[in-house]
Amino acid sequence: MPAHLRVYPDAPEPAYSNGPHPSVHVRLGDLLPLVALAHRHNYLWLQDFLDDEVAVTSDLYQVLRAFRAYRPSA
Q1: C-alpha 19, offset from chain centre
Q2: Which of 7, 16, 40, 55 suits 30 as a labelling partner, its CA being 20 to 30 A distant?
Q3: Mean of per-residue pLDDT scores for the chain
């Protein structure tokens, strides 16, 4: 008699499984100058957050993807 197998759906993984759930919303215009300054002066604390994920709107994501592929002509 063949064995009967049951298939169970995977439990949905939380979007932020490796850290605290984001609870603060910040304007990109307020965030970028601070991150740029920390990057420019090589602040070590910035490296602690390099693996963190951020959520962006789909239109900003599309612009960033296009900008990344952009190669200015010489």
Answers
A1: 12
A2: 16
A3: 82
Q: How far apart are CA 7 and CA 70, in angstroms?
A: 46
Q: How many CA atoms lie within 13 A of 30 on its CB side?
A: 4
Condensed to tens digits (0 to 9), the pLDDT of residues 35-67 reads 999 999 999 999 999 988 888 899 999 999 998
Residue with tokens 């063949």: 2
Q: d(Cα 50, Cα 38) in Å, to the nearest integer?
A: 12
Query: Which residue type is seen at 25?
Result: H
User: Residue 67 has which token pair?
Assistant: 């900008």
The token pair at 9 is 């759906």
Q: Which residue has the tokens 């970028």?
A: 32
What does pTM read for this prediction? 0.59
